[in-house]
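Risk register update: the risk of archive-format incompatibility is retired. Evidence:
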Amino acid sequence: MCGICGKLYFDPAASVSRGLLESMADTIAHRGPDDEGYYASGQVGFGFRRLSIIDLNSGHQPLSNEDDSVWVVFNGEIYNYLELRQELQLKGHRFKTKTDTEVIVHLYEEYGASCVDKMRGMFAFAVWDAREKVLLLARDRVGIKPLYYSLRKNALVFASEIKALLADPEVEAGIRPEMIDEFLTFYYMPGSETMFRGIQKLDAGCVLTVKHGAVKIQRYWDLDFTTRQRPLKDAMAELEGLLDESVRLHMISDVPVGFLLSGGVDSTAVLGLATGKTSQRLSSYTLGFDAEGITDERPYARLAARTYGSEHHELTISSRQFQEFLPKYVWHMEEPVCEPPAIALYFVSRLAKDYVKVLLSGEGGDEAFGGYQNYRSLVWLERLKQVLGPLNPMVSRGLSGLNGVLKSAKISRFAPLLTVPFDSYYYSRTSSPFCVFKSRADALYSSDFRQSLKANGPPDALQQYFESSAKFDRVNRMLYMDTKTWLTDDLLLKADKMTMANSIELRVPLLDHKLLEFAASLPGNYKVRGFTTKYIAKKVLGRMVPKEILQRRKTGFPVPYASWLKTDLKDWLVDLVLSPEAVSRGYFDKKGIEVLLSEHQSSGRHSKELFSLAVLELWHREFLKKRGAHSTQEAPVGAF
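Archived output:
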């Protein structure tokens, strides 16, 4: 696990300086404190920071082939590298290290850009082909590892993190105000665009090639939800084999491996599957909060640890620790994301840092097998629509008219969905009251900001996925959409940035692409059946999970930020979002924000919106005020 960066000038006579590469790599030193390396040759240069996991003594990067005509910098793990290495040796390739990095070099020599099809793992890498004068950038299938780039008139710059790009004086990355609405609509930023004008993410499952200044992006992998029928018993046996294989591959390491325990089914099962796959004693880590009124996950994590005999460690954090870390949270995340559990992940990975360099988690099981209540609600909504048929509009109006009476049952919330298309349903479960298409925005956005949004038009990062998933049933469309957007651009972004902030490699065996392809091929009722979510996964994983964990109600990972924003952090929040500095940005109507704060104090209903406002303001202070004197000048809304 590492941090990578580099630059390619399109002019062959230009030269990338080592000093620039060092400056870029210094900004991501937390990703790789064990080693650094550089390659600068005329128009191209690579920088590298290493966290040593495999082949501790000879894994120095950038790394080349035998005649130095192909160079690579690589962040991630190729879990099938031993198999690939043997295959390549049989084809005549000679290796000088035992690393998975060198496998990429020889795979590229053998297969070119299609080398990614052979890899099983998480990765972001760059290859420079000196003979063909081709730069190749690649990102793993679901986006476990991040990769950003900035395409200038004369060059392309890339890095594992945005801050490394901003270290290049030629990267003039101004703010894109329309992305503020995108963030406040979804609570994260789906798609390839970032808040910085001129800086993009390479989409998951894509390769980018540059040859003679021409840039081409191609998708090499996507999920196909075409159903493959097989008896449930056979599907369970196949799933069990894939799970065991994936966890075994993810255990490959030359350093100790630990486990994040959330108290849920997936993380407990990953620990159970790992038992017996290493001679080292397993360790596990979890976190709680100094707060009342929330579900405490620690007793369930302890139960999982006792069941499998892991050496267990716990940590408790307070509202003050939560609040004091927020500026660093924004600095490490780089993209505004409303993800309070990310702060918990930072602290628990900081705890684990004293014991291990690698952590495994159960991230991804819900997105693969339909673990959220939204998927169950969608199934029942579809059944209701089929039963009602032509009566749908009349029933929808009738239930909507009972708003208030039926609040506790939440029926009125679903009533309008009886008559809407899939994209409207998807937006209804993902978007917030800030969305420009909702009336609430009129009271929150300033008139100038509303006009600027109308002029620019709303970004439509999700439209391509709506179109490509049209042939799937609604549950599988939801799973596809979540995998392509929320999983990649929120959950996995958080997982990478918060663990790498502590120089920890996080591995996610439930997101192995073979597992995802298997899950996508299952019929919908193998995922959501009746009132049971994640049906087949629970039947298989239930064999290794204590019943107290298997049968408990799903809670996610509860963080008491909503109550803290009403109590311990109330004054801090008000001072931040109503500060003269925040108001002067011109995005919001001050009275509208005051109403939002007041309503939250009385009802607690706006915690995500207010946390998002806080994150947005901290983002401006961290990246525009402190860091961007040469590249990100602040300006009032009217200036855009």
